[in-house]
Amino acid sequence: MPQLAEILKSTGTEAGILELEITESMVMRDPDQAVKLMRNLRAMGVHLTIDDFGTGYSSLGYLKLFPINNLKVDRSFVRDLPHSEDDVAITRAVIAMAHSLEMNVIAEGVELREQLDVLRKEGCDEFQGYLCRPPLAEEDLIRFIRDGGTRGTLS
């Protein structure tokens, strides 16, 4: 933690523009320690995202303790939207749960307009995937960031 604070200070970067993604499996290795670390990061102003949510590792009891800003719906639940009623139900439940915990929801792996339509209908906040933008080469990524590029929003 002191190292991150020093890096932010030496670069003049505000903690509030830094977003760290933490995989669900990483957090669940030592949930109690992860909660402490995440609380310290949030106290600094860093934004936190749980990635790969729903892939089988987390306990919902811990999720309410994690001081996170964003929850990413894993692409394995998005892939078969809208054709899999089970995936629609799971996605709907994850979005509702995250919103009730005051978290922003980001869907990963959105490739088709049909998937986006379901996510929009269910209240998902943002999305990532080929439908928004394919992977970029380094120079294109730098240009994209300089131009203010972001994830796709659904509002």
Treating each run of at least 4 consecutive H or I residues as one helix, how many helices?
Answer: 8
CATH architecture level-2 label: Alpha-Beta Barrel
If you consult CATH, what is the topology?
A: TIM Barrel
Radius of gyration: 16 Å
The biggest beta sheet reads: 6 strands, mixed
Number of domains: 1
CATH homologous superfamily identity: EAL domain
Write down the secondary-structure element order.
HEHHEHEHHEHEHE
The neighbouring-strand order within the major sheet is 1-2-3-4-5-6
Category by helix and strand content: alpha/beta
> Strand-residue fraction?
15-25%
Tell how many strands the DSSP assignment holds: 6
Q: Low-confidence parts lasting 5 or more residues at pLDDT below 50? A: none
| Residues in helix, % | 40-55%
Taken from the alpha-carbon principal axes, the silhouette is globular
Distance between the termini: 35 Å
Average pLDDT taken over every residue: 90
The level 1 CATH classification is Alpha Beta
